[in-house]
Amino acid sequence: MPILNEAAVLKALSTVQEPELGGNLVSRNMVKDLVIDGTRVAFMVELTTPACPLKDEIQARIDAALRPIGAELIDVTWGATVRRATPTSPQMLPGVKNIIAVASGKGGVGKTTISVNLAVALAKAGASVGLLDADITGPNIPMMIGAEGQPVASANGKITPIMANGVKVISIQFFLPEGQPVVWRGPLVGGAIQQFLRDVEWGDLDYLVVDLPPGTSDAQLTLAQSVPITGAVLVTTPQEVALADVAKALAMFKRVSVPILGLVENMSGFVCAHCGEVTDIFGRGGGERYAAEAGVDFLGGVPLDITVRQGADVGVPAVAQSQPGPAAAALEHIARAIAGKVSIQAAREQPVLTVS
Predict the structure, then answer these.
(1) CA-to-CA distance for 229 and 226, rounded, in angstroms?
(2) Exposure of 349 by Cβ count < 10 A (0-12 exposed, 13-18 middle, 19+ buried)?
(3) Range 299-304 average pLDDT
(4) pTM of the complete model beyond 0.85
(5) What is the pLDDT of residues 58-93, one digit of tens each?
(6) Which residues contact 291 (CB under 8 A, 6 or more apart)?
(7) Average pLDDT of the residues of the chain
(8) Residue 27 Ramachandran class (φ > 0 left, ψ -120 to 50 alpha, else beta)
(9) For residue 198, how many other CB atoms are within 10 A of its CB?
């Protein structure tokens, strides 16, 4: 039986390709804390996101590479260091690695539902996450994520966000009396978003999810011109009127040079809880077809699910429910897909080690 040593193990692991990023585990500097004890090999694989959707595939590739060289017990632990996919912005948010904008062409397609569940799903996976409610005139984030109270000043005079479901949350709603509307012109809306970027104590975040208002106006332009956005997630329903508007949102982000991470089709079908029959209330497959035509990635569809509405009304997002409905699995899949897209984008900026 061959004698295991560090050189032999690393050589074998250098044949294990990272499924999404390309390159191998060694050249990507993902193998940490290697320990060899007889036929036992233990090490940590440092992923680029705790929400990695391909752990099982990587584990299988590791086993296939190490067993032929004599490893009988392979003990892999998983770590994660989220990497920055956009340039550092010293003027604003220097501790925030990635900013993900969630947008739609029209209202009523469930954009805020996607934003809240994306943020909570990433936090559940182990990432440090913030959620900025940039829908200044329609701030629903606090109710939907269960954030209560009023932010206070930090030691250095900044606004301390409210923690809810493991996510740091800021919204204009925290500063308004109950029921008071925000009747502001565009410049005031843009100013509020800039203040939430500049004057909130976000700290170190792996992801800052920004829930934008529907359409293509001041809020979108303010965000794009203020900070480097990692990418935008577009939300639509399958129906043609929603697709016509999401096309305008796509064109707007391309015009301001914001990468598109992909498109989510919300309300993609209703599954009857009693008979199991699927009813395509808003049509079928429109989002996926549009994504293919527009050349953007289709991140997944989310079915109509009463538990999503029930949870949103009491501040318990679908992915945080103790008995989640069918939409929760789809939302978690979408969160992992988005995290993967961000990791791929960040990997393009990282040097690759040469393995001899």
Answers:
(1) 9
(2) exposed
(3) 94
(4) yes
(5) 999 999 999 999 999 999 999 999 988 876 665 668
(6) 262, 263, 297, 298
(7) 91
(8) alpha
(9) 14
